[in-house]
Specification:
The chain is an alpha+beta fold and 247 residues long. It has a single domain, classed as YmcC-like fold. It has a twelve-stranded antiparallel barrel with strand order 1-2-3-4-5-6-7-8-9-10-11-12. The chain starts with a helix and ends with a strand. The N terminus is likely disordered.
């Protein structure tokens, strides 16, 4: 047992001394309160660190909803609300907003919803899965590098993602991203020193365009602490605040 513990300690030793903008402890939980001004709804979501794995020198972290209510919610770009981070040896934590797995799972979900709405299958699941398996239909990714040495006013790289399967197509574009410096933020879970970022997401899902302006605050060792989402007119529509977290 001591030997196993020693190996694990050695494998994670490089992470010590370089704080990351996510929680690296598997099974740790984070609780958020979400308010939607458009629908006048408020809900609490419990999110668990479902996976922490090492791939080469990087640490991959996934956070998944652990309560049934959260699992039923449809995020704008998070699919089933699974949140992904990649922590690198240089101290940068990459928040992955959209990747290939996100696209495949979202397409399957959209097809299920359409089939249910039309009360019939638009095409066989086998044909649809074969189309999704075509890697050429997946283009790009959208990632936000969270950096402890970010300079206020520094630009966040643009990103694009698109996926097409049969008649179904989705596309996303991140632009106007910027590091807005560091702020002390108070939420129900407490007061945190946070890195603040903002960006614009333009989406086209099944040929229905949508634009959102997103501002987020991330704390070291935890991840997302606060989020504000505004519509195309830059009117605040949604907020997300951390209520409790395992450190």
């Amino acid at each position: 047992m001591k030997k196993i513990f020693y190996v694990l300690a050695i494998s994670f030793f490089p992470l010590i001394g370089k704080a990351q903008y996510c929680n690296l402890h598997q099974y740790a939980t984070l609780i958020y309160v979400n308010s939607n001004r458009e629908t006048n709804e408020t809900r609490f979501d419990t999110v668990a660190v479902s996976s922490v794995t090492r791939k080469g020198d990087n640490t991959w972290v996934e956070q998944s909803p652990s309560n049934p209510t959260a699992k039923k919610q449809k995020g704008f770009y998070d699919g089933n609300n699974t949140v992904k981070y990649v922590y690198q040896p240089n101290g940068v934590t990459n928040r992955i907003l959209i990747d290939e797995k996100w696209g495949v799972e979202t397409m399957r979900q959209l097809k299920e919803e359409l089939d249910s709405y039309q009360n019939n299958a638009t095409e066989s699941n086998q044909d649809f899965n074969e189309q999704l398996a075509d890697a050429e239909r997946h283009k790009g990714a959208i990632t936000i590098p969270l950096k402890a040495d970010a300079v206020k006013g520094e630009k966040i790289p643009d990103g694009e993602y698109s996926l097409k399967a049969g008649y179904m197509k989705v596309s996303f574009k991140l632009s106007d991203g910027e590091y807005e410096g560091f702020e002390k933020v108070t939420v129900p879970a407490g007061t945190f020193d946070c890195l603040k970022v903002s960006y614009k997401i333009k989406a086209n899902v099944l040929y229905l365009p949508q634009t959102q302006y997103i501002t987020q605050w991330y704390a070291q060792g935890i991840g997302l602490v606060k989020e504000e989402i505004a519509n195309k007119k830059k009117e605040l529509t949604q907020t997300r605040l951390l209520v409790a977290a395992d450190k």
